[in-house]
């Protein structure tokens, strides 16, 4: 009876260590994926800041869209 309990305990320990290793491998993979996503997020933030730069927007408006600043009598002021 004691031998059977010892064997069952040993098998349970081996199983628990195996599960721990599998979960640790998964954790490592997820951490690596998180780090890659953090890097990509930083790149996207930088790209967004570049596209949203006021000077760049003004340049695109003037050059591509041929927009100009309105002259004095072309301005209409609307007051509440």
TrEMBL record:
Keywords noted in UniProt: Cell cycle, Cell division, Cell inner membrane, Cell membrane, Membrane, Transmembrane, Transmembrane helix
Location in the cell: Cell inner membrane; Cell membrane
GO BP annotations, alphabetical order: FtsZ-dependent cytokinesis
Coiled coil: none
Keyword Iron-sulfur: no
Record has Transmembrane helix as a keyword: yes
Any Pfam family the entry gives: FtsL
GO cellular component: cell division site; plasma membrane
Membrane topology qualifier: Single-pass type II membrane protein
InterPro entries (UniProt xref): Cell_div_FtsL
Quaternary state and interactors: Part of a complex composed of FtsB, FtsL and FtsQ.
Protein task: Essential cell division protein. May link together the upstream cell division proteins, which are predominantly cytoplasmic, with the downstream cell division proteins, which are predominantly periplasmic.
Sequence similarity: Belongs to the FtsL family.
PANTHER family named among the record's database cross-references: CELL DIVISION PROTEIN FTSL
Protein name: Cell division protein FtsL
Annotated organism of origin: Alkalisalibacterium limincola
Record lineage: Bacteria, Pseudomonadati, Pseudomonadota, Gammaproteobacteria, Lysobacterales
């Amino acid at each position: 009876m004691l031998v059977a309990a010892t064997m069952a305990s040993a098998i349970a320990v081996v199983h628990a260590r195996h599960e721990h290793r599998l979960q640790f491998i998964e954790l490592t993979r997820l951490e690596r994926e998180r780090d890659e996503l953090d890097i990509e997020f930083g790149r996207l933030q930088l790209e967004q800041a570049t596209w949203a730069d006021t000077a760049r927007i003004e340049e695109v408006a003037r050059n591509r869209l041929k927009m100009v600043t309105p002259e004095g009598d072309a301005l209409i002021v609307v007051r509440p």
